[in-house]
Write a structure and sequence with these properties.
The complex is a heterodimer of chains A (228) and B (394). By secondary structure, chain A is α/β, with parallel strands linked by helices. Chain A has helices at 41-49, 71-81, 97-101, 103-106, 113-129, 145-157, 175-192, 215-218, 222-227, and strands at residues 2-10, 17-25, 30-34, 56-61, 64-65, 82-85, 163-167, 195-200, 211-214. Chain A has a five-stranded parallel β-sheet with strand order 6-7-8-3-9, sandwiched between helices. In chain A, strands 2-1-4-5 form a four-stranded antiparallel β-sheet, covered by helices on one side. In chain A, strand 4 (56-61) and strand 5 (64-65) form a beta hairpin. With 394 residues, chain B is of the alpha+beta class. In chain B, helix 2 runs antiparallel to helix 9 (294-337), helix 2 (18-54) runs parallel beside helix 11 (352-393) and helix 3 (66-75) crosses helix 9 (294-337). The longest helix of chain B has 44 residues, at 294-337. The mean pLDDT of chain B is 87. Classes of the chains: A alpha/beta (228), B alpha+beta (394). The A-B interface holds A 46, 49, 51, 71-72, 75-80, 82, 84, 86, 90, 92-95, 99, 103-109, 155 and B 1-2, 5, 8-9, 12-13, 16-17, 340-341, 344-354.
Chain lengths: 228, 394
């Protein structure tokens, strides 16, 4: 599903360098990447999603070499195949729950005729299943933190992506909501045989994942790894 | 990317911030509307001014500003030039070069100008009585359609001329006039005037008067002495302020009518030759009156309007540029504040082109709606201008 090989990345005017020798995630598996703040978890997720492009190495999702795609094709691929969930939810305040969930469709996801109505139906089903169906026509500012994060998850899942990337999705939630939100993502990944990668600080939730990767150990300069 | 989706997202944002959106639309609409509306008003006022001037071949009046003469004679504005003598009208009429119509436009009644003239004026302007009848005797008047409407007066009612100076005991008398008719709407300055016979105008001027009978011995205690046809009386003699059927015969004029004042004369030559002769008559240095072609005088005035228009239009363009600049600034700041939202779009998978199109669509929607409102308002103003300007200019 996801195969990352020898990628490195450096932000302009920054001495920090990300080096990942190899990373894999198979369909139906759930992976937690943990590590201290600033160790590069978010950067890694952005590289996998194609938001950033590695200076070397490769990122393949299924058979698609994401790192080689031109900007517009990479954006289109992300829209179709990757579901992104953010710590701050990143909902659009002037759109209703419905429109937030269907945002990929508004931003250019290609679905015509029946496929389009299927997607809308699916968005509604997800909203009902996650308990936010009653807020379908409400704006996010009327929702609690937990409900907002569920809207963000529905937005990521409604396009039925191959890969789900979540960056601290439970960071702003209370313990009860944390577990609910995580279960929601894991259940989806298992049921649909999709890969789920979650960057988290929350050690209490790690038992729910198939794999846990200590990211600061993974992200080492080549020389350090050679010595190790 | 579907245009409908972009339009939908744009609309969602614009409707989420209605006040900001409305302010921007209003700024755009006003920026476009004001210069065009001004243009429409000036064009229409020029057309109306020129139309009335064009229908008045020649004007004769006291020497001085041709524009003052034209405005007083065509729009009954305050008489700025001295009067001319009625004898000038009589001489013109005797020359048989065409039609001559005397005008006396000096007084007011309830804020409306009073025009003293002859029945020829009504025929010349194509005015007809819509209600009641034309004036028949001294002290009668007919009202223009707008005056009648605004004052709520009609046939059978009375209207009093305004004294020019309450301390001028020997001057202009307030005369209570009987309204005999109301004219049909003409959409010209005539709608806003009160029309009287020239003799009634002179009566207001104090050149004719009526008072209690002093000729019959013992009729009044005011009589001081009698010497043949000469009767001397004191100030207690009752002067009539209203002409009635009972006292109309007591009204009489003093002095030579040829010396009575009129403000101007409309000359309607019956041929090009007559026109040339009429024009020539007033060209000499010895002539005590001037003759003008009203169209030329009004064109002079409208040229001044054109010069003013250029200045005002320039001011509007500057204001417009400022308003558009501020609108652009509002958009730029707004997009900057929404940077996070745009980054979210990009992370989810929107291309740069999609995001740029989204921004463009919001700006375009405001511009198009603003322009559409301005276009409708301009069309409305154009049709409104043709309706309200005659009244305003009248």
């Amino acid at each position: 599903m996801l195969a990352v090989e020898k990628i490195s990345f450096q932000y302009p005017k920054s001495s920090y360098t990300l080096n990942i020798p190899a990373f894999e995630a198979k369909g139906g598996t759930t992976t937690a990447i943990v590590g201290p703040s600033g160790c590069g978890k978010t950067t890694f997720l952005n590289l996998v999603a194609g938001v950033l492009v590695p200076s070397s190495g490769s990122v393949k999702i299924d058979v698609t070499p994401v790192h080689q795609l031109p900007d517009s094709a990479r954006a289109a691929f992300r829209l179709e195949q990757i579901g992104l969930i953010f710590q701050e939810f990143e909902l659009v305040e002037h759109l209703t729950v419905r429109d937030n969930i269907l945002l990929p469709l508004h931003l250019g996801l290609h679905r015509e005729g029946d496929a389009r109505s299927t997607l809308v139906d699916r968005a509604r089903e997800l909203a009902d299943a996650t308990g936010i169906g009653d807020y379908w026509n409400k704006r996010p500012n009327n929702l609690s933190h937990g409900e907002r994060q569920r809207v963000a998850i529905c937005r990521a899942l409604c396009v039925d992506p191959l890969l789900i990337l979540a960056d601290e999705p439970t960071g702003n939630l209370d313990p009860t909501n944390k577990r609910k939100v995580l279960d929601l993502m894991i259940d989806f990944a298992k049921a649909k045989n999709r890969a789920l990668i979650v960057a988290t600080h929350d050690v209490d939730l790690l038992d729910a994942f198939d794999e846990v990767v200590q990211f600061d150990e993974l992200n080492q300069p080549e020389e350090a790894r050679a010595k190790g | 990317m579907k245009i409908s989706s972009i339009a939908y997202l744009s609309w969602k944002y614009l409707s989420y911030r209605p006040l900001k959106t409305l302010a921007l639309i209003a700024a755009v609409a006003l920026t476009i509307y004001l210069p065009f509306a001004l243009q429409a008003f000036i064009n229409e006022s020029t057309r109306i001014l020129q139309e009335r001037a064009r229908s008045t071949p020649l004007l004769i009046g006291a020497k001085g500003s041709s524009i003052d003469l034209a405005l007083n004679s065509l729009y009954f504005t305050e008489q700025a030039l001295p009067s001319v003598e009625y004898g000038a009208f009589e001489r013109l009429e005797e020359s048989n070069l065409g039609r001559a119509i005397p005008l006396h436009a000096r007084f007011e009644a309830s804020g409306a100008p009073i025009l003293g003239s002859t029945l020829d004026y009504f025929e010349f302007r194509g005015l007809s009585v819509a209600e009641g009848r034309m004036f028949t005797r001294l002290g009668d008047c007919v009202l223009g359609a707008s005056v009648a409407k605004s004052l709520g007066l009609g046939p059978g009612d009375k209207i009093v001329s305004s004294p020019e100076n309450v301390f001028d005991l020997a001057g202009v008398y307030p005369l209570k006039m009987r309204i005999t008719g109301v004219l049909a709407t003409a959409h010209t300055a005539d709608d806003d005037a009160v029309f009287i016979d020239l003799k009634t105008a002179w009566t207001i001027e104090g050149l004719a008067h009526g008072h209690q009978d002093l000729t019959t011995p013992g009729a009044s205690d005011a009589v001081l002495s009698r010497d043949g046809n000469t009767i001397r009386a004191n100030a207690s003699v009752l002067e009539f302020m209203e002409v009635t059927d009972e006292n109309v015969d007591t009204f009489h004029f003093h002095g030579d009518r040829s010396n009575y004042p009129i403000s101007s004369i409309i000359a309607v030559p019956d041929s090009e030759k007559s026109r040339a002769i009429t024009l020539g008559r007033y060209q000499s240095d010895a002539a005590t009156e001037q003759i003008i072609v009203p169209f030329e005088a009004v064109t002079k005035l409208t040229n001044t309007l054109f010069a003013t228009r250029k200045m005002v239009l320039g001011a509007f363009v500057l204001l417009g540029v400022t308003a558009l600049g501020l609108s652009a600034l509002v958009f730029v700041l707004s997009f900057r504040l929404r940077e996070k939202e745009m980054r979210t779009y990009a992370k989810i998978g929107a291309t740069d082109f999609t995001i740029r199109t989204l921004k463009f669509a919001e700006v375009a929607a405001v511009l198009v709606i603003g322009a559409a409102i301005a276009a409708v308002a301009v069309i409305g103003t154009q049709s409104l201008a043709s309706q309200i300007l005659p009244t305003l200019l009248g």
